[in-house]
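Async update (no meeting this week)

Hi team, since we skipped the sync, here's where things stand on the single-chain job. The sequence we agreed to prioritize is pasted below, unchanged from the tracker. I ran it this morning and attached the output directly underneath so nobody has to dig for it. Comments welcome in thread, and please keep replies under the output.
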Amino acid sequence: MIQAPKGTKDCLPKESYRWQHIENVLRRTAAEAGYREIRTPVFEHTELFLRGVGDTTDIVQKEMYTFEDKGGRSITLKPEGTAGAARAMIEGKLYADPLPIKMYYLNNPIFRYENPQHGRLREHHQFGMECFGAKEPSADAELIVVLLRLLKNLGLDDLKVHINSIGCPVCRPLYHEKLRSFLRGNMDHLCRNCQQRFERNPLRVLDCKEDRCKAIVTDAPVMLDMLCEECSTHFSGLQALLKAADVSFEVDTHIVRGLDYYTKTVFEIIMQGVREGLALCGGGRYDGLVEQIGGPSLSGVGFGLGMERVLMELDHRGIVLPEPLLCQVFVVQTGEETVQAAFSLTQQLRAAGLKADCDHTGRGLKAQFKYANKLGIPYVAILGGDELARGVVKLRDMVSGEEQEINLDNAALQIVQIAAATEEA
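Output:
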């Protein structure tokens, strides 16, 4: 039997309503803050990620799905969403529009070749929000507040905000030197990847997942102690704005994020309780990314939220999302002479705005009722030979068992009114 590739997962029809519920909440909350949707290709030129994400990151070094197409071009399946959004913004010349440019992407497929984990697959999906052309810390604060609001709208409200600043090209080189001095005495104990990162980007060592490297950097120098005036002012402004918005946060100097384009603000939303320490999502500022991939000098800030991880957390907390009614009216036919009329009535009910269906499998009368009852369909419209001859349809309330006859000529309108009155009651 052919199976789905390792690290991928089907979303079956019985589960898709959960995704749709989350998508509706995310769209609504993003729109409230003035963000509009962007959709970008599932693959990009590899150079975009080499220049944007950084060739010293684990994503580029270990996790990208890269291949050569038939034209000899190096192509990569998207390992993250921000670089593609920035590329589309540049190519579409959106920077000529009034700033800032606020955009979001939804169910963006992300591909990373790594050992599949619960909530993180080789193909997973992200919701992300990106704001280009806003240099003030209010843009950072807004995204954090919007992120908390949309998670709360999903029922996830017991969360912690961790923030940090990792400086900018002005102050970070001095920090790099200080960090190298600290790491130099432990070079032999660093993993092979971190030894390679030592000269090119020592900040990546702080993000290493190897236990021995994590132990070494426990007492490493802190970037916050070496921020330039601009970065320090920006970080202080962010904290003041979060306090003004009654957002509780913790300054966490160990957050650096796993992408090279980050500058100044980085943040993560951390779960509490038995899952304390696990990041639900994260993001930060990337003021040099747009210019780095060929665009104008334009600041940016954003975040990415894994859809599978959100679903995992909802399940862990026992939060049940409302399941929509699959069908409101099932039209039962009793024989060959009523098939066409039943089919026609079904279409009329749908045109009137009801979720309606009829039998397509040749079931008998009892089997049709059993099917409707199993699906929890509230109404059954019975169209037998006798009803058809008298120009009526019999409507049964499947909860109370009550029946009433309705004129077939305007049955759809009457059934809509009956269903609406029941819902209001």
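Quick observations from my side:
Residues 329-419 form a domain with the Rossmann fold fold (CATH 3.40.50.800).
The longest strand covers residues 101-111.
Reply here if anything looks off.
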